[in-house]
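Table S2 (continued). Query chain:
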Amino acid sequence: AGSVSYYYKKTHDAFLDKAVSSINGQSDWTVNAGVLENQGVEIDLRITLVDTRHRNPNGFRWSMNTSFGRMTNNVAGDYKNKTLTNQIDYKDYLDGTAQIQGRAMNSFYSYRYMHLDPFTGAPVLYGVKGTAYVDNQLVDLKEKYRNMEKTDIFSDVMVYSGTRVPTLQGGIQHSIALGRFSASVNTTYSFGSKIRLLRMYPNVNSEYETIAPQPTANVRREFLNRWRNPGDELHTNVPGAVSGDVFSGSLDNSMWWSGVSNMNGELIKFADNVWTMYDKSDLRVVSGSFLKIQSLSVRYSFTEKFCERISMKSAYVALSGTNLYTFCSSELKGQDPATQDGTAPTINMSLRPTYSFTLNVSF
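Corresponding output:
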């Protein structure tokens, strides 16, 4: 038995924020301007693979329940990779809140990691130096960006990383019975999403902060492989602990883009600092797909004859566990793809396995 359903929905006049002239009394206004397309398929199946218990009460039965869901959405528009709203900031690209034509909702972008500085161990990302090679020609980005729209600048500095929302989700439950033993295992899966690794520098926000983690702070084990001496950049992409001068020069107010405007008189700022750019770079984007053993239980029911001998009506024992194991990308380095994302400022414990033993009797 089972069911299959398909849906398609096209939403017109979705709410968007638009910048308007201040002569209207405010600088932004919510308008009906967006078009969003959603479609998906959902499948639920209940299957008995083997069943001999109808002939023999102590026979074997194996059944399976499965659910499958695939969902996609798309921000419609005539100009691919252009935002629908003109009320936009570079942080909207990074956190997936920008509505970009031709992309799915919750699509996010990342800075382009290049390498570690061989003399300081600081990260070097596209755009930080103020120059870049375009068609084998060294280009002054300050002059290039002066003649570009703000969203085109963000698209040049960043690359598309994917969507935070999985396109395929579901679960499979197997139930087995043999004699007085029964067992069930429930697995869940999620595919198609991308997530950031946990941040390594969550507190870099002013020149009074230190780039090295505080002694009492929880940090990623990746710091064990950090840059220490020239040449290490050939074997690691984890920045080193830089000097105060290098650190001060890596903050927003010390970078070349500070105070620079584009063709519309808008500041071309596209980052807070080099360390946030590193945390939100394509280097630290990995697959969020996973297969999880959600629960497993085993149960044994005692015979009626045994229960009568000790004056019981019925009795059984059961052993169960939840959150037992997650199969996912090794690049996550222990990060739980189901509960943790690099947008979090702190390191949190993932869901831990739990076990229980049950003895149930009735008189």
